[in-house]
Structures are given as structure tokens and as C-alpha cells.
């Protein structure tokens, strides 16, 4: 069975409030968004009717999510909440609902289902590399080029997938 796993942007866009589908999120995301529609207790209603389930991923899925994010180069851009959403998707084999590019890039690179909320589908996924606009060299990480001292920039190497398969 497919499960919809919501990140914070899905709540801000109102996805669970206008849907009859059951949804999952993690306790980290819930803590971040629990103020939404607090006066109407909309989240409380979703929880009471069991349309929103709060579940945390297991350690193995979390470790896989972290390793995958590091492999694609997205790890520095992802919060603990973002990692927990990717890990829960690995855990449940569900579908992430998110507009976050870093989440999308990691998820697509490891074969997870992901759907955007308000943006077009992200076509380009790959691996991030740090490059020096001064001496035109590529680096795996850092803020400054070790060769010439120029501040490094990031670019996406499209079509470059990490070697961590999750869904087979």
C-alpha cells in the first residue's frame, strides 16, 4: 500500500486539510508545524480521525537517508526534519509530498516516489559538486578553492546518480 508522507511545505500548502487520504509525517515535522490552524485545531482533528499519523523512521532508514544525502551532496541543505521525511519514505515505501528540491533530489536518486505540491515536477536530478569559477576545478566539498582561494560555488551534475539503491 502506498502512503503519503508529508513534509512541512505540504502542511503549509494545506494538503492534508483538503484531502480525504491518510497521511504520515514525523514527530520532528509535527513539532515544526503544530502551530498551523491551531485556533481551529485542524491538526488535532486529523490526528483524532486517524487521517494523520505521526511515525518516526527506524535507525537503518535514517542512516540510509543520511548516506544518500551525503552521496548526492544535498546533506548540508537538509534539516533533521527533511532527513526524517526521506527516512520515513524509505521505511514505509510511500510517496513524499514536498516542494523541497534537496528532498526531491535525494529521493529521486534512490528511487523513491515523490510528488510536488505547487511547483512543476523537478526534471533535473543528479549529484552536487563544488566548483571553482576561478581556476575551473571541481571539489567534493569546501567553501574555498584549495588551489587558488576563490570562493566555491555548487552546481548539479545532471544524470549523475549515487550508488546507493534503496528500492529494487
From TrEMBL:
Provide the GO MF annotations for this entry: hydrolase activity; metal ion binding; RNA endonuclease activity
Q: Which InterPro entries match?
A: NOB1 (IPR039907), PIN-like_dom_sf (IPR029060), Ribonuclease_PIN (IPR033411)
Ribonuclease PIN domain sequence ranges: 5-92
> Which family, according to UniProt?
Belongs to the NOB1 family.
Q: Which PANTHER family match?
A: RNA-BINDING PROTEIN NOB1 (PTHR12814)
Annotated function: Toxic component of a type II toxin-antitoxin (TA) system. Processes pre-16S-rRNA at its 3' end (the D-site) to yield the mature 3' end.
Name of this chain's protein? Endoribonuclease Nob1
UniProt-listed GO biological process terms = maturation of SSU-rRNA
Query: Keywords of this protein's UniProt record, alphabetized?
Result: Hydrolase, Metal-binding, Nuclease, Toxin-antitoxin system
Cellular compartments per GO CC: cytoplasm; preribosome, small subunit precursor
Amino acid at each position: 500500500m502506498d502512503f503519503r508522507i508529508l513534509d512541512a511545505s505540504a502542511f503549509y500548502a494545506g494538503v492534508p486539510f483538503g484531502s480525504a487520504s491518510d497521511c504520515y509525517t514525523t514527530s520532528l515535522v509535527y513539532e515544526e508545524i503544530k502551530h498551523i490552524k491551531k485556533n481551529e485545531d485542524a491538526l488535532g482533528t486529523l490526528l483524532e480521525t486517524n487521517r494523520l499519523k505521526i511515525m518516526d523512521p527506524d535507525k537503518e532508514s535514517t542512516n540510509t537517508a543520511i548516506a544518500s544525502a551525503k552521496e548526492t551532496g544535498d546533506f548540508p541543505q537538509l534539516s533533521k526534519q527533511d532527513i526524517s521525511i526521506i527516512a520515513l519514505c524509505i521505511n514505509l515505501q510511500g510517496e513524499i509530498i514536498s516542494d523541497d528540491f534537496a528532498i526531491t533530489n535525494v529521493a529521486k536518486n534512490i528511487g523513491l516516489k515523490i510528488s510536488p505540491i505547487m511547483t512543476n515536477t523537478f526534471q533535473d536530478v543528479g549529484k552536487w559538486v563544488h566548483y571553482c569559477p576561478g581556476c575551473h576545478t571541481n571539489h567534493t566539498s569546501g567553501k574555498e578553492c584549495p588551489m587558488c582561494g576563490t570562493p566555491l560555488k555548487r552546481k548539479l551534475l545532471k544524470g549523475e546518480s549515487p550508488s546507493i539503491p534503496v528500492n529494487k
